[in-house]
Design brief:
By secondary structure, this protein is α+β, with helices and mostly antiparallel strands. 55% of the residues lie in helices and 16% in strands. Strands 1, 2, 3, 4, 5 and 6 form a six-stranded antiparallel β-sheet that branches. The N terminus is likely disordered.
């Protein structure tokens, strides 16, 4: 009986499994913090500062899950507990996958300039009119911040330039409006005059941040010039989001006009 008991008794007792279980618990808590921070802020359950603290806590818990899983794997290898080794490996892989998106976003934020208002026309940026009241109620200004932003934009985003479309005005106007809808933005106003303008609001998926966009169409001798301005209502920097939004819009507009 004693020999049979020793044969079946798992080496290391319950400790390898307990350590691996702790790593799984840390992983679940990390996922809750990272995935829940944005929705909690968007639903007005917590203020923005608390939501960012949840993100930081989630990141630390994710790193903790990896560290504890490595310890569990080491103990399991010493005790020859193959099942625990696989559990630890899966926890490490899941933790790395969980931490990858916020890590990449942080990397983009570090490389992007600390500006939140991007425009294709740095000399005469398209103006917010219909959306002016919403922007006045937000921390960031309605008016373009000026040369300090323009200088940083020239250095970081030299590709953000006006686009020319050698097409009739009505064709570009209809395509510009359709492209706004393709982007999923909420149109606030469409104004047709000497320069056609479309004002719209883009809402980010995770935190629900509001960024405002104005598209301006200007008649030229051989077609239409299109300028776009995208500006965040909140935050000093935007991690490159507004510049990318302008690129994506022009891509959608080129598809609509068949000029891409």
């Amino acid at each position: 009986m004693s020999a049979l008991y020793r044969q079946h008794r798992k080496r290391g007792g319950r400790w390898p499994a307990r350590i691996a279980g702790l790593s799984v618990l840390l992983l679940l808590l990390a996922a809750l913090g990272l995935a829940g921070a944005g929705p909690a802020y968007r639903l007005e359950l917590v203020p923005l500062g608390t939501a960012f603290n949840l993100l930081r806590l989630g990141g630390l818990l994710g790193l903790g899950a990896i560290a504890v899983a490595l310890l569990a794997m080491l103990v399991a290898l010493l005790c020859r507990r193959r099942g625990v080794v696989w559990m630890a490996l899966l926890t490490i892989a899941a933790s790395a996958a969980l931490l990858a998106p916020p890590w990449m976003h942080w990397q983009r934020a570090q490389s992007a300039p600390p500006i939140h208002d991007i425009t294709t026309d740095l000399e005469d940026p398209p103006a917010f009119v219909a959306l002016a009241p919403e922007r006045e109620a937000a921390p960031n200004a309605v008016e373009y911040p000026g040369e300090s932003f323009a200088r940083l934009q020239r250095e970081a985003y030299p590709d953000i330039q006006p686009r020319h479309f050698p097409l009739p005005r009505d064709t570009v106007r209809a395509a510009a409006e359709a492209a706004v809808l393709d982007m999923g933005w909420e149109i606030a106003d469409i104004e047709f005059g000497a320069a056609d303008t479309i004002e719209a609001t883009a809402t980010t998926t995770w935190f629900g941040f509001k960024d405002d966009v104005v598209v301006r169409l200007t008649q030229e001798s051989d077609g239409m010039r299109v300028d776009v301005r995208s500006a965040s209502r909140l935050g000093r920097g935007d991690a490159g989001a507004n510049a990318q939004r302008i690129r994506d819009y022009f891509e959608a507009l080129e598809q609509r006009t068949g000029t891409g």
